[in-house]
Structure formats: structure tokens, C-alpha cells
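Lab meeting, item 3. Inverse folding demo.
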């Protein structure tokens, strides 16, 4: 019975460890996925006549960036300055999600406005914080 209990505890520990693994193997992979979402914003910035399906695509891209930044902050040991840039990126990507989900008359302008700040957040990180470690694509 002790062996069974010990085996059960070991299996539970292994399952919990495996369940908390990173979705991305490296920050470079994480940034690459965010770049793809960024390009979605770029494609629709300033475009008129955006359909509901296109708003859904923009919203999904924003959610992906928010989720990726959560992972960056939790799993990649960032310092306070880097964390602040990451949080700013989350805020602006979240604003894009809100605007895309609302589909109001000013939604595309709101998306374009926040897109600019997403660009600046990415640029600040890659130009200032990640140049030394050659993470910048």
C-alpha cells in the first residue's frame, strides 16, 4: 500500500510539473508569434469597411499578445523595466481587443491608435532591452 501511495504522489507531482510547462521554448519563439499578431494589426490599421470576421481576427491577435505577455512575465525572468514595457504592451493589445469586440464606428481608429503604441512597446523592448542578448529579430 505504501508503494502505491508513493507512486501516486510521484505521478501527481510529475503531472503538475508537465502541466505547467511553457507554451514557448524561448523568448525568441514568443516574440515570433507576437510578430505574426502584430502583422494582423498592421494589415487592418486605417482600413475602412472592416467586416465582423476581420474584427474577430484582430481581436484574436490582440488576445494572443496579451496571453504571450502573461507568459513572458511569469516564465522568462524579466527585470522591472522590461516588465513595465511588457505590461504596456498588454494594455495596448487589450485596448485593441476591446475596440475590435465593440465594432463601433470608431473601432478601426481606436485599433490604429493602439497599434501605434504596440509598435512602440515592441520597439522599445527590442531596441533597448534585447539588443545585448541578440534576441531582436
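The presenter then showed the designed sequence:
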Amino acid at each position: 500500500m505504501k508503494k502505491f501511495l508513493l507512486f501516486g504522489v510521484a505521478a501527481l507531482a510529475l503531472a503538475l510539473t508537465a502541466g505547467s510547462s511553457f507554451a514557448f521554448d524561448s523568448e525568441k519563439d514568443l516574440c515570433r508569434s507576437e510578430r505574426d499578431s502584430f502583422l494582423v494589426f498592421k494589415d487592418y490599421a486605417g482600413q475602412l469597411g472592416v467586416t465582423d470576421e476581420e474584427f474577430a481576427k484582430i481581436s484574436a491577435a490582440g488576445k494572443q499578445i496579451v496571453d504571450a505577455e502573461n507568459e513572458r512575465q511569469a516564465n522568462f525572468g524579466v527585470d522591472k523595466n522590461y516588465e513595465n514595457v511588457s505590461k504596456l504592451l498588454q494594455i495596448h493589445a487589450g485596448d485593441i481587443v476591446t475596440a475590435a469586440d465593440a465594432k463601433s464606428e470608431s473601432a478601426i481608429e481606436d485599433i490604429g491608435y493602439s497599434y501605434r503604441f504596440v509598435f512602440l512597446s515592441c520597439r522599445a523592448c527590442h531596441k533597448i532591452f534585447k539588443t545585448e542578448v541578440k534576441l531582436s529579430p
